[in-house]
Specification:
Blueprint: H1 8-23, H2 30-37, H3 41-47, H4 51-66, H5 80-95, H6 102-105, H7 111-138, H8 140-143, H9 153-170, H10 176-187
Helix pairs in contact: 1-2, 1-4, 2-3, 4-7, 7-9
Length: about 190
């Protein structure tokens, strides 16, 4: 077999993701990833110098795949609230692929790993908050809203996403009540 064409990094990452899906993020470690993928521990360390680096890569891959097949153009013809429910549904379905609530798993990591994981996750959270602002901008009826410094689009996007995360962590399938609350907030 020609080993020059083997992408060890992808194999290692795929095995780490498989462990995250089946056993939870806290169960990922260099030794088990190496053993399960049939790759030497030293080779794993060549690509991921620490468990934290491997976890950060898994988190990055997780968020990349969560939105990989989203047709953002389909959001253009709906109002903000319908689009928000669509976005929530995408996240809900994707998160339910995992044995353990993936969003809770970072809490079980050691401090250094948690810091690396949170940093990577926060990069993606910012992208999602930016997407929520984009969804607000697409809804012409929200364009009339009097945004202020205390109730800016950015603050509302942060509030919205923070609450979506709470609901996702709790495993709530439906966000209808939250949409009612948002509409009340936006109508004032």
């Amino acid at each position: 077999m020609d080993k020059s064409n083997i992408n060890y990094k992808d194999i290692i990452l795929a095995e780490a993701k498989d462990i995250a899906i089946k056993q939870g993020m806290a169960k990922i470690n260099i030794r088990s990833v190496a053993k399960n993928s049939g790759i030497a521990i030293g080779t794993v360390y060549n690509y991921f110098p620490s468990k934290g680096d491997l976890l950060a890569a898994v988190i990055e891959d997780f968020w990349d795949h969560a939105f990989k097949n989203v047709d953002w153009q389909s959001f253009e013809y709906s109002n903000f609230y319908d689009n928000l429910e669509k976005l929530y549904s995408i996240l809900y379905v994707y998160l339910n692929k995992f044995k353990e609530n993936w969003l809770e798993q970072l809490a079980f990591l050691n401090t250094h790993e948690r810091v690396l994981g949170k940093k990577k996750q926060n990069e993606y959270f910012k992208k999602i908050r930016d997407k929520i602002i984009y969804l607000m901008d697409m809804d012409e009826s929200l364009g009339q809203h009097a945004w202020t410094e205390s109730v800016s689009k950015a603050k509302l996007a942060e509030f919205t996403f923070d609450n979506m995360l709470v609901m996702l962590r709790k495993g709530e399938k439906d966000m209808h009540f939250f949409i009612i609350v948002l509409k009340k907030i936006m109508s004032d």
